[in-house]
Amino acid sequence: MNTNNLSSALNVSARCRDLHVSLWQCPHFLFIVMGAVISTTILLTYVVAKFYAEPETVVSIIFVVTVFLFVVGNAVIKAFEKVAEASQLKSEFVAIISHELRNPLSSIKWQIDALMEKKEGLTSADFVPAMKIVNHSNEKMIGLINDLLDINRIEDSRFQLSPAIFSMNELTDEIVSVYEPIAGTSNLKFILLAPKSPLWVMADKIKVKSVISRFIDNAIRYSTSSGEITISLEDIGSHIKWSITDQGAGIPVKEIQNIFSKFFRASNILKYQTEGLGVGLYLSKYIIEATGGTVGFRSLEGHGSTFYFTVPKSKA
Amino acid sequence: MIEDDTTLANNLSAVIRQGGFEVFVSNDGETGFRQAQEKRPDLILMDLVLPKKHGFKIMEDLQKSPELATIPVIVLTNLETPHDVERALSLGAKAYLVKANYSLNEILKKVKEVSDGTN
């Protein structure tokens, strides 16, 4: 081991930061604590035994220290479990990401395949739909990578917002018009309830747009075919409240507490969902809270859900 | 064919039809299993990640029925953890193909191979 390796091995706090656990959950640090306790105890016991020579005192010290070591030992085991669990989550996550990236990639590959098969006599009637699919797949991958980068920025505390003043009605209209044709293919209709006058807010427009898009996307995805999706905007004093109600599947009661956690779908995504990373709501909550708003939902399994968020009004 | 991505299903079914096969496509696991019961196909080509019924569940249910258990299954998916591959093969899959690694014609070739092998 050269000096570099040695010093990095000894730099416990850095090692623990790398593992993304606090000092008291970090095996490296806990081992040092155990070592310190054991050596101090040996010295102390020696001193007590030599100068005070009361067996009861020595026995009590050893007893107290043993109990303490037992507690720390348990903490070490818990810490190892946590690190092992993180590594397990990581490999599941890699499996999901590769699946999610490969889907659009194979779409593109097969589109090109199909075009190459024809080769001669290719017309724009062949090209246009193929290019649309290639483009859509490409957008999907870009979105996926952007989500991953955002998560990474959040974990490294590098996530930044650029707030500006904009109208929530206008932004909502703009996004709804993009999703209308998609909803239409599942016979879903949007109902937009908003005051005519612009509702000015102070927030990062691109990020709020991503939140609204995710909420609408979820509402469509969890809706049974045909029905209504109601979006409403309200002035609630210091904030503007944006909410969306679907008549879809609703959220199973036992999953409610996990809904905003990262990779919430990681455990069941491959079984019940066909698309997505399970990070949408996690990112949305983070963005809205960093903006100074709140996120929440009401849901009744089998009857649909309402998701809402608030963003601060502009002071101007 | 049980494949929820309709564009993939269209592209692939066209190629397999050109190869001289009759193809029925289902876009979700439940319909796919029902079609398998009704049509008794010579071969099932299916994804694993499917709405309504996961591919592994379909394979388990096929295994439970003596008439359906003999239908050869080719798994065509983008999942590739050793665990998934192992499970698919243990449930009797004749081949495990990763979508991103195969061209349409290579898949057709595999379909021919497996159906020739069982006839």
UniProtKB/TrEMBL annotation, chain A:
Gene Ontology molecular function terms on file: phosphorelay sensor kinase activity
Membrane-spanning intervals of the chain: 29-52, 58-80
UniProt entry keywords in alphabetical sequence: Kinase, Membrane, Phosphoprotein, Transferase, Transmembrane, Transmembrane helix, Two-component regulatory system
Enzymatic class: transferase
CDD domains: HATPase (cd00075), HisKA (cd00082)
Domain Histidine kinase as annotated: residue spans: 96-315
The EC number(s) this enzyme carries: 2.7.13.3
Catalysed conversion reaction: ATP + protein L-histidine = ADP + protein N-phospho-L-histidine
InterPro entries assigned: HATPase_C_sf, HATPase_dom, His_kinase_dom, HisK_dim/P_dom, HisK_dim/P_sf, Sensor_HK_Regulatory, Sig_transdc_His_kin-like_C
Protein name: histidine kinase
Species name: Candidatus Giovannonibacteria bacterium RIFCSPLOWO2_01_FULL_46_13
Organism lineage string: Bacteria, Candidatus Giovannoniibacteriota
